[in-house]
Design a protein that fits this description.
about 140 residues; alpha/beta; Cytidine Deaminase, domain 2; six-stranded mixed β-sheet; two-stranded parallel ribbon; globular
Length: about 140
């Protein structure tokens, strides 16, 4: 199960809406081994595409070095789908390289950048196997 604060969930959704019609992507880091998302890190979709996302390799390397220096790891890796449901695509699965991370998908297909309904779902993706998990949104930890 993913436990995430309302503030972090809302920041992820806001990023997804702001980047629509392109896919948004980013990371929420947390202390190593804690499984607790704490630090929101929106990233640039280097592909700038409505159907694909890609972290800039230089930005990603810098982020991993920074997380290492802070004894953090990626607890949540998120991206948005702009025209389809919040479910991992084959490409998403092929890029899932963090077995301990929660892979969050937000779908902005219904409202785009406007307020309104959205899908916010979380998955574990290990060795190509997708397992959806419950999301508990809490006010604070």
């Amino acid at each position: 199960m993913l436990r995430i604060t309302t503030e972090l969930r809302d920041a992820i959704v806001a990023h997804a809406r702001a980047d629509h019609p392109d896919e948004a992507c980013g990371v929420v880091a947390g202390h190593e081994g804690s499984d607790r998302p704490e630090r929101f890190i929106p990233m640039l979709n280097a592909a700038r595409s409505p159907t694909f996302y890609e972290f800039d390799s230089g930005d990603l390397l810098a982020l991993y070095r920074e997380m290492d220096d802070r004894d953090e790891e990626p607890v949540v890796i998120y991206h948005s789908h702009t025209a389809t449901e919040a479910y991992p695509s084959r490409t998403d699965v092929s890029y899932a390289s963090e077995p301990n991370a929660h892979y969050v998908l937000v779908s902005t297909r219904e409202t785009g950048n406007e307020p309104g309904p959205f899908e916010f779902r979380s998955y574990r993706i290990v060795d190509g196997v997708i397992t959806e998990e419950d999301v508990e949104v809490v006010e604070s930890y």
